[in-house]
Structure formats: C-alpha cells, structure tokens
UniProtKB/TrEMBL annotation:
Keywords: DNA recombination, DNA-binding, Transposition. This is IS6 family transposase. Residues 65-186 form the Integrase catalytic domain. InterPro entries: DDE_dom, Integrase_cat-core, IS_Transposase, RNaseH-like_sf, Transpos_IS6. PROSITE patterns: INTEGRASE. PANTHER family: BLL1675 PROTEIN.
Amino acid sequence: MNHSNKNPFKGRQFTAEIILWAVRWYLQFPISYRDLECMLADRGVQVDHTTVFRWIQAYAPELNKRTRPHLRMTNGSWRVDETYIRVKGKWVYLYRAVDAAGQTIDFLLSPKRDAAAARRFFRKALKQPHTVNPRTITVDKNAAYPIAANAMKQSGELWRFAKLRQVKFLNNIVEQDHRRIKRLVRPGLGLKTFVTASRTIAGYEVMAMIRKDQIVSAPANDMKAQRDFIAALFSTAA
C-alpha cells in the first residue's frame, strides 16, 4: 500500500465504512469469509467472499501498524510462549508475549522454533513503542529461550539483570490468551501461505489488543469507541 497516498481506500469499489466494518468483524469474531459475505448481503451490500479476503490482506497489517503508537505501556514482567498454527498443511510457530496483567506485548509468526526465532521475536518486541526492557521473562522449558536471552544480554540488547524463569504454571496467562487467537484461526481458511497467515494473524492480534482495553480512547466493551478509533486511524468518518 502506498503510504504517500492520503486515501488508503482510493480505487476501491466500496466505501471505507463498509470495508472497515467487514475487517473489524472478521478479525474479532470466529466467522468465515462466506459468513461475512452473507452478513454484508443482509445489509444490502453485494460483496464476494474473495473480495473480503483481499480487504483483510490489505487492511489487517495496516491496522496493526497504525494502532501500535496508541497502545498503553505494558509492564516489565513478560510471559512468553509459542503456539502452533497450521498453514497449508504445515505447522508454523506463533511466538507471543503478554505482560503480568495480560496485555499483549508482541507476536511473531515463524517457520522455525529455535534460538534464532526466539531472538528475532525478542528483538521485535523490544522495538515497540509500548514495551519496556523486561525485568523477568517467564518461559516454558524450551531450551531456545535461555540461548537467545544470553546472546542478547551479551550484545546489550537485553538488560543484563533480566531474569529468565522457566516455570510452566506461571505461563497459564499467556496460554489462555492463545485461545482467543486459536478460536479465530479455525473458520478462517485464509491461511494458505505464510504471508497471508502473517497478515491475517496481525489483524487478529491487534483487534485482540483493542478488545483487551490496550487503547486509552477505546475501552474494552465499547464497540462504538473502538469503531471510531479505527475510523480515525484511517482518517475516515465512522
């Protein structure tokens, strides 16, 4: 998408309002592209499910990017874990971190589960405007995490007093949070390639952040405020 272009909806056959309505609904509820096609038809809008898929591919990563600067600060107690997602018959790994309060720190879809992937995930998380260098990082028994953390301490990317704890039960909070994303992945048959999966999951994750009260101006259960916040991100009237 061309960022110099003021209107991200230019050239689209449908209005920004309809597109963002479809994108928001798809990314926060377990519905399929065909479900959404029927829901739009009910509102008098004839859209093919393949068009809805293209909207998600275009606007989910854009929504993720535009939301980042508005997220509340997370705390320095990280709970990190990875979960499996099936993409075109193969398992890939979704690295995820939440803080002690359950707020999403970051996520990364990776084809591999190793120390290099763990390090890439930590680096990505540390670059976000809503994160702090962690005091503690709670992980499972995956041997890749200590290797990644030690290498990052030596390179000065991670605070050298940060404590890595390998305690399984402390990670219940992040495992419960995985379920929110897993519930959405099932009906979505858009995970045909690694790239489409990455874009769609970025959308699921950012809508989950919004629903978890991570935006000051868009409270957790206020659908209207969330709609207005997203419309403002794309500079369109809600």
